[in-house]
Design a protein that fits this description.
The complex is a heterodimer of chains A (109) and B (115).
Chain A lengths: L4 E3 L2 E5 L4 E6 L6 E7 L5 E8 L4 E4 L2 E6 L4 E6 L8 E9 L2 E4 L3 E6 L1
Chain B lengths: L4 E3 L2 E4 L5 E6 L6 E7 L6 E7 L2 E4 L8 E4 L6 E5 L8 E8 L9 E2 L3 E5 L1
Parallel strand pairs in B: 2-11
Antiparallel strand pairs in B: 1-3, 3-8, 4-5, 4-9, 5-6, 7-8, 9-10, 9-11
The chains are: A mainly beta (109), B mainly beta (115).
Chain lengths: 109, 115
């Protein structure tokens, strides 16, 4: 069963532009994490935001969490070719982690 | 830098055969996860271990899948017999914290193709 659902499913932008991906979920959570997956590889953890936090930054990444709307967003600023990947949100509730279907991001040269 | 190791990286088998995947987590990580990822989808948890104990195997098809982590270190996931629908990427991850509190470190995965 999928708790989180990313939007859009696919996104293509020009290099240097900002990319925004959204994640919506259905039930209350303890925290939410974002992961990146390059084609055919394992996932890499990007950032974790707790339910009592509203915003976190890590380098070119900015994550927001709105628990009242049950949604999160991941912003990647000044995109690079190396950012081409799939991005997944993962919600944690009661020590159960559920991944969404992901957003496929393609950075155009 | 410590990494999660998985083998084999690729496996092709015929339906009704048995297959086994191996995972060696980052040293000291008590929590180990096995996920199945169908192309175009997110990872789906199959089984979670805390040391040698199974914490969650509610999504594991127990009629054909089994998993063990005998000494609380490395782990094996087995499928017997394999079916066409089992073709997927099998990912192993480990964590030093309780589920969901910390980040998970993923291995490169095993790509299974069942013919």
């Amino acid at each position: 069963s999928q708790q989180g659902e990313e939007d859009p499913q696919a996104l293509s932008i020009q290099e240097g532009e900002n990319a925004t991906m959204n994640c919506s979920y259905k039930t209350s959570i303890n925290n939410l994490q974002w992961y990146r997956q390059n084609s055919g590889r394992g996932l890499v953890h990007l950032i974790l935001i707790r339910s009592n936090e509203r915003e976190k930054h890590s380098g070119r990444l900015r994550v927001t969490l709105d628990t009242s709307k049950k949604s999160s967003s991941l912003l990647i600023t000044a995109s690079r070719a190396a950012d081409t990947a799939s991005y997944f949100c993962a919600t944690n509730r009661d020590d159960k982690i559920i991944f969404g279907k992901g957003t496929r991001l393609h950075i155009l040269p | 830098e410590a990494e999660v190791a998985q083998s084999p990286r690729y496996k092709i088998t015929e339906k009704s055969q048995a297959v086994a995947f191996w995972c060696d987590p980052i040293s000291g990580h008590a929590t180990l996860y096995w996920y199945r990822q169908i192309l175009g989808q997110g990872p789906e948890l199959l089984v979670q271990f805390q040391d040698e104990s199974v914490v969650d195997d509610s999504q594991l098809p127990k009629d054909r899948f089994s998993a063990e982590r005998l000494k609380g270190v490395d782990s094996t996931l087995k499928i017997q017999p394999a079916e066409l629908g089992d073709s997927a990427m099998y990912l192993c991850a480990s964590s030093s914290a309780l589920a969901g509190i910390g980040e998970q470190f993923f291995g490169p995965g095993t790509r299974l193709t069942v013919l």
